[in-house]
């Protein structure tokens, strides 16, 4: 990559973040509605801190930090970088104000532009990996920003919309169909000459047995049948920890479902609307996904089954917004039988695979090595990207991960079964 193309990509990604906050007020961007949620203002500062810390301070001689206090305020989880503010209290950071955070972003952007314009080709080669990671990191936070502001606005009594609704599209609910795959020894993990996160490799071989995947993710109509059949009150469908979680938190439906005057509605970033029965169900925990699969006499896929299926079929991707924001999954398009629907870009799909290292995986020893490896405990893998994932950020080897009780992410499920 040459400096001009890197700067163009950098500017595109950074401008996309700015576009996401355009409809939000400064009050919206300061709120933290639960410990897992970060205020929008914090996301804006943290992504700039990442560039300042790992690119500018490390590789730009003479760079002066914008504010020395920001390292404590906006470091997320990098132990090697120093002490940091408690995640659950990010909403208490009334200072710096939003205008200072926006000035910080401008300062970092101008510094990165100067660095790229003056750096020698050899120096660009030395920092290219950090730049690509920084771009992917910011795109991750674009999705996190949408997840978090959705949770914030969902706590408002009048369910305000963050963004205008997308245009109507002629997508329909398809009947449930199964696609079969033959087992064997196959290669998995990222092996192309392009960017990936370190947890997507090393490439390796593994054995699959014959299996089937549902042609589409489970939709709201199907999930509503589970709800109305007493799925949330049948302990026999649930994992032990999941049942305890459901009971302790009085869980009776997906996160943003609300029953109003006897009818189910769903809160979205486009406001609250009657439940779209044809759209994929979203905002499920791993526990809920497992309970539904048990009820449906099926199971969740292994992550390698999912990856193999995604790369060996002509699947129809989910609908992404090319202009504006369409942060709610749409129903599947009508397609040819045997083609998997919405493998990329509908909802993140829970797998039953624990998030653990691939064979021969080794995390880097520097601070950037804390990015993925240290979280390989107590979490499960999701695959496929969602409607809120930037389109050029998803790929069939991407391993997202969350603890089993988490459900504020755009997470759904696709059924699997053995042959």
Characterise the protein shown here.
α1 packs parallel to α5, α2 packs antiparallel against α5 and α7 crosses α8. The chain has 419 residues and is α+β, with helices and mostly antiparallel strands. It contains nine helices and twelve strands. The mean pLDDT is 92. The strands form four sheets. The protein has a four-stranded mixed sheet with strand order 10-9-8-11. Strands 1-4-12 form a three-stranded antiparallel sheet, with helices on one face. The chain has a three-stranded antiparallel sheet with strand order 5-6-7, with no helix packed on it. The protein folds into two domains: 152 residues, Four Helix Bundle (Hemerythrin (Met), subunit A) (Up-down Bundle), CATH 1.20.120; 241 residues, Alpha-Beta Complex (paralog of FGE (formylglycine-generating enzyme)). β5 and β6 form a beta hairpin. The chain is 33% helix and 12% strand. It is globular.
């Amino acid at each position: 990559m040459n400096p001009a193309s890197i700067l163009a990509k950098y500017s595109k990604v950074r401008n996309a973040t700015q576009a996401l906050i355009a409809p939000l007020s400064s009050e919206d961007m300061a709120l933290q509605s639960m410990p897992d949620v970060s205020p929008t203002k914090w996301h804006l500062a943290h992504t700039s801190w990442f560039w300042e810390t790992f690119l500018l301070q490390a590789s730009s001689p003479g760079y002066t930090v914008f504010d020395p206090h920001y390292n404590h305020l906006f470091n997320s989880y990098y132990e090697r970088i120093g002490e940091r503010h408690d995640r659950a209290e990010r909403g208490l950071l009334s200072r710096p104000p939003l205008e200072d955070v926006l000035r910080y972003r401008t300062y970092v952007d101008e510094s990165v532009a100067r660095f790229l314009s003056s750096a020698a080709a050899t120096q660009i080669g030395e920092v290219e990996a950090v730049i690509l990671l920084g771009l992917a990191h910011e795109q991750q936070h674009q999705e996190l920003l949408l997840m978090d502001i959705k949770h914030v606005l969902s706590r408002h009594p009048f369910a305000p919309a963050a963004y205008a609704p997308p245009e109507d599209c002629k997508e329909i609910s398809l009947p449930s169909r199964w696609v079969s795959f033959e087992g064997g020894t196959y290669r998995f993990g990222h092996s192309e000459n392009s960017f990936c996160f370190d947890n997507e490799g090393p490439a390796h071989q593994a054995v699959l047995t014959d299996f089937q995947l549902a042609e589409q993710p489970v939709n709201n109509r199907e999930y509503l049948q589970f709800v109305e059949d007493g799925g949330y009150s049948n302990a026999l469908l649930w994992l032990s920890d999941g049942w305890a979680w459901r009971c302790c938190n009085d869980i009776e439906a997906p996160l943003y479902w609300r029953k109003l005057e006897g009818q189910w509605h769903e809160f979205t970033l486009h406001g609250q609307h009657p439940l779209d029965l044809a759209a994929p169900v979203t905002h499920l925990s791993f526990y809920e996904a497992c309970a539904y699969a048990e009820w449906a006499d099926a199971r969740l896929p292994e992550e390698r089954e999912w990856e193999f299926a995604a790369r060996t079929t002509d699947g129809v991707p989910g609908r992404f917004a090319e202009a504006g924001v369409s942060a709610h999954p749409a129903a599947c398009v009508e397609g040819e039988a045997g083609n998997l629907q919405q493998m990329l870009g509908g909802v993140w799909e829970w797998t039953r695979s624990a998030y653990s290292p691939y064979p021969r995986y080794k995390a880097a020893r520097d601070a950037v090595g804390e990015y993925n490896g240290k979280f390989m405990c107590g979490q499960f893998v999701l695959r496929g990207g969602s409607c809120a994932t930037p389109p050029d950020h998803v790929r069939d080897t991407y391993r997202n991960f969350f603890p089993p009780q988490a459900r504020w992410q755009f997470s759904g499920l696709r059924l699997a079964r053995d042959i």
